[in-house]
Amino acid sequence: MSHNLLNLENTFFRLVIDPNGARIIHFGPRKGGNILQSCLHKVPYTPDECGGFPLLPMGNRVRNNCYQLQSASGRMQTINLNCTSPDGSEYLHGTGWNSEWLFDDLSVYPKEDMKNLSLKLLNKQGEAGKGYNFEAKLHFSLHRNTLTIVLSVKHTGSASRLYGLGFHPYFEFDPQQDQVCASVSAYAPEVEGHFSGEFTPNMGKWDISHPTLLPDEFVNHIYSGFNGVEIYRPNFPGPSKKIFMTSSAPYLMMYRPKGSKFLALEPQTHVVDAANRADKGGLVKLSKNIRYLEAFWRIELY
């Protein structure tokens, strides 16, 4: 955990960020309680013990840590990705979550009960893989009862590369009482290697299109057609019991080990192993002509 933690507060919320990985280590009402799991008093802490972090230049795993991409000359080339998982065995979620971000800007608007904080990441050494040179900005905004997070990336490399963005929040969660309800159309169950199978509208026990108590078992799959998710927590302190998350991203990963006290609901712009799909699964090729990609996430307590 970095010593230079960044604090952002308004009337409703307190947000604490560790520039190491731009990880949220606390987010909840100022009067008590956690929306995302808190690791304020854990030193050190692991990625699964924090409150959330950004995913870039693309989330999830990529089969064999590489993909094929057509070059400007029309030839197919193999793009090798660096192993970024905690154990160093595979590419996982890119480099944003284990890089040191820099403070960029702070702005305060008292009349609007709004505070904004921006971080930046200068990733110019191909940390995610050769050719992955980019600049990223991460903007946090507390406005009354809402947290908005905007992530943008500008590709600065000479050769094109595939990009996708995501946010990996860990909501504090009790499977015995808390319910989940989301606007989704289909899901793809996990297959061997923590990859995804084919999408199906028959979601069975993982159908969260209505308020649902989730099974207390390991889950790591992805939903399509995502258009918002609500978590109802009957024992949350205070009068507000519902947490609502929306995003510009059309996919939602759900991850939770059995018995854990969190539920990761991760809005992402792309599917698992999208780089190895024929249609690239929501990833965008950034190049000299198209350099910029942006996505947002919004968490509201009501």
Automatic annotation (TrEMBL):
<dbReference type="GO" id="GO:0005975">
    <property type="term" value="P:carbohydrate metabolic process"/>
</dbReference>
<dbReference type="InterPro" id="IPR011013">
    <property type="entry name" value="Gal_mutarotase_sf_dom"/>
</dbReference>
<protein>
    <recommendedName>
        <fullName>Aldose 1-epimerase</fullName>
    </recommendedName>
</protein>
<dbReference type="Pfam" id="PF01263">
    <property type="entry name" value="Aldose_epim"/>
</dbReference>
<dbReference type="GO" id="GO:0030246">
    <property type="term" value="F:carbohydrate binding"/>
</dbReference>
<dbReference type="InterPro" id="IPR008183">
    <property type="entry name" value="Aldose_1/G6P_1-epimerase"/>
</dbReference>
<dbReference type="GO" id="GO:0016853">
    <property type="term" value="F:isomerase activity"/>
</dbReference>
<dbReference type="InterPro" id="IPR014718">
    <property type="entry name" value="GH-type_carb-bd"/>
</dbReference>
